[in-house]
């Protein structure tokens, strides 16, 4: 049994990868990170071992592309913030608040939150991606979610809008 | 397991649970894949009087036309295995072929002018397919006649197999091959589809 058509991979994992990119690089760069991820995945796909975990493979590529985007951005002058076009928000403000909170997290926490909570990777996989052990990944995930929750709590938001 | 591990209660559920529209990113992926020579197989469907047809093409040309009864998902899986798993839904790549099929089914076109990739047929079957294109629109030929055309007059059953496994039905007209006793014979798209095509062409 060979690999499935790549179209199936895009269909099944495209939205997940976009959310992961969004959480790691933010709304402005998420589309570029997604595009580079799927182009690189398409290139390598025929050589992927048939029994591979496609989801973890994609997240690994997405992480590399996201980190590339962040490095390139730090070398560029600050871009003007624009609204994401691809993820359709129920409320635009909620999306911007979330990114505003995510960008305040230490990078390891932000990435852990993305790979565990958005991509659904188990902490053992997250630890393999980020280095360290599953216990520290679990801690980073829990701390990240706790910080996000307190930053996004209605009282904290009122505080910030004052 | 703490409550905080539960994705239901995570702060993304409300925002990132929103619907994701990938159509623009998909178009960009197709364009960049084409630019980089990574678009090995593209496909789309067209609605026709014989049901929905799947069209698939490689860089060489149209490689597969499939009836719904063949199972489009099964056909795509086979193409991924036999040609390349770099298989994506087409943008505009197959619009010209689809247009010619529309014209054919509207009786404004009697022959197809498209590049064909016949890699899914080999040896005698390939020889048969090449001769099928000599049967004109509106005409028919018997399995025995096609066997003779292909240079193996006794290979009548093999002609039947070649027609039954034709990777490009409609475009390579295996529907014009009929039985010597006047019956229309079997067809990869079903007997009704064969009758529809022969009536469309005025052959019966």
Question: What is this structure's SSE topology?
Answer:
The complex is a heterodimer of chains A (162) and B (204).
Chain A: H1 6-25, H2 27-44, H3 54-75, H4 92-102, H5 107-118, H6 123-130, H7 134-152, H8 154-161
Helix pairs in contact in A: 1-2, 1-3, 1-5, 2-3, 4-7, 5-7, 6-7
Chain B: H1 12-15, H2 23-35, E1 41-48, E2 51-57, E3 62-66, H3 72-82, E4 87-89, H4 95-105, H5 123-132, E5 141-142, H6 143-149, H7 156-164, E6 177-178, H8 191-200
Parallel strand pairs in B: 1-4, 5-6
Antiparallel strand pairs in B: 1-2, 2-3
Question: What attributes characterize this protein structure?
Answer:
heterodimer; A: 162 residues; mainly alpha; Butyryl-CoA Dehydrogenase, subunit A, domain 3; 8 helices; globular; B: 204 residues; alpha/beta; Arc Repressor Mutant, subunit A; four-stranded mixed sheet; two-stranded parallel ribbon; 6 strands; 37% helix; 13% strand; elongated
CATH architecture of chain A: Up-down Bundle
What is the CATH topology descriptor of one domain in chain B?
A: Arc Repressor Mutant, subunit A
* Helix-residue proportion of chain B: 25-40%
Mean pLDDT of chain A: 86
- Give Rg of chain A in angstroms: 16 Å
Count of DSSP H/I helices of chain A: 8
Low-confidence stretches of chain B: 1-9
Biggest interface, chains and residue tallies: A-B, 44 and 37 residues
Distance between the termini of chain B: 71 Å
């Amino acid at each position: 049994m060979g690999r499935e058509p790549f179209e199936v991979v895009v269909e099944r994992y495209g939205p997940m990868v976009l959310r992961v990119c969004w959480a790691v690089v933010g709304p402005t760069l998420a589309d570029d990170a997604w595009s580079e991820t799927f182009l690189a995945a398409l290139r390598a796909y025929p050589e992927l071992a048939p029994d591979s975990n496609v989801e973890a493979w994609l997240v690994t590529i997405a992480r590399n592309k996201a980190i590339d985007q962040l490095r390139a951005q730090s070398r560029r002058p600050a871009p003007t913030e624009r609204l994401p076009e691809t993820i359709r928000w129920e409320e635009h403000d909620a999306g911007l608040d979330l990114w505003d909170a995510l960008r305040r997290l230490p990078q390891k926490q932000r990435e852990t939150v993305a790979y565990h909570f958005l991509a659904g990777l188990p902490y053992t996989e997250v630890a393999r991606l980020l280095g360290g052990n599953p216990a520290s990944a679990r801690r980073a995930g829990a701390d990240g979610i706790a910080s996000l929750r307190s930053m996004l709590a209605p009282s904290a938001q009122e505080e910030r809008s004052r | 397991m703490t409550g905080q591990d539960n994705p239901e209660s995570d702060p993304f559920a409300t925002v990132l649970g929103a619907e994701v529209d990938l159509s623009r990113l998909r178009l960009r992926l197709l364009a960049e894949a084409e630019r980089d020579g990574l678009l090995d197989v593209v496909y789309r469907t067209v609605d026709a009087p014989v049901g929905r047809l799947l069209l698939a093409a490689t860089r060489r040309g149209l490689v597969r036309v499939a009836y719904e009864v063949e199972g489009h998902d099964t056909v795509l899986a086979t193409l991924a295995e036999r040609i390349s798993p770099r298989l994506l839904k087409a943008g505009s790549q197959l619009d010209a072929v689809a247009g010619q099929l529309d014209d054919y089914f509207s009786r404004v076109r009697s022959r197809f002018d498209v590049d064909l990739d016949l890699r899914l047929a080999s040896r005698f079957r390939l020889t048969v397919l090449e001769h099928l294109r000599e049967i004109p629109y509106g005409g028919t030929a018997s399995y025995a006649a096609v066997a003779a055309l292909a240079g193996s007059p006794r290979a009548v059953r093999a002609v039947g197999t070649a027609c039954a496994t034709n990777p490009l039905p409609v475009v390579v007209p295996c529907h014009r091959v009929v039985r010597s006793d006047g019956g229309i014979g079997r067809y990869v798209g079903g007997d009704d589809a064969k009758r529809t095509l022969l009536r469309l062409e005025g052959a019966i």
